[in-house]
């Protein structure tokens, strides 16, 4: 379980020992990790990192998983050169730190990445996934960006966009039942608001017994009882992308 003093325990399970099979490239004014499948495709997925940044091996592992399922995957540095959060940082400073990294103010970077995917990679159908901070960013983009086809928000911090629910595109919301920073009452309220306001397809799914960060957790730390839900969540994510891209 997460330490209650941590407002965003994405590092539970620590990091994968994973190098990545893609490469780092410059995309306009930001850097990005890109991985492409061997067969050509016009489908791409933008991966939005959590507070631990675009270089976190866990996130690159998921990007490579998307590529193994036939997608161009790109994980840009949405902190635009600002330092990512470190587990050794003082959590008492977290609120001030995150105020300088607004998940609702990444539109300029997304436009640059979309142009790169279309011009340099031949992408025509583009979706988006994001974890925690990045999950909140997915919700923001699904509310306003007309160029994205679909999104998957993985344990996105609901309180950052809790009053906005008129999604433009099909969106899948993944939550853990035992997530210390996203109480189940917030998830229930999100479902109610979506039911009242949302005109497109959506799904909200809660995975039993799972804590924050469970989809991209270090494999060595997967408990036997958790493994089926982690695998199910990853499969659900891929299936949603397959359905709408």
UniProtKB/TrEMBL annotation:
MF (Gene Ontology) = hydrolase activity
**SUPFAM superfamilies (alphabetical):** alpha/beta-Hydrolases
**Transmembrane annotation, as ranges:** none
Which keywords label this protein? Cytoplasm
**Chief location of this protein within or outside the cell:** cytoplasm
Q: Name one Pfam family in it.
A: DLH
InterPro entries xrefs: AB_hydrolase_fold, CMBL, Dienelactn_hydro
Q: Where in the cell is it found?
A: Cytoplasm, Cytosol
What top-level branch of life does the organism fall under? Eukaryota
**What is any one of the record's Gene Ontology cellular component terms?**
cytosol
Domain (Dienelactone hydrolase) spans: 30-244
Alphabetical list of PANTHER family matching this protein:
CARBOXYMETHYLENEBUTENOLIDASE HOMOLOG
Q: Which family does it belong to?
A: Belongs to the dienelactone hydrolase family.
Q: What is this protein called?
A: Carboxymethylenebutenolidase homolog
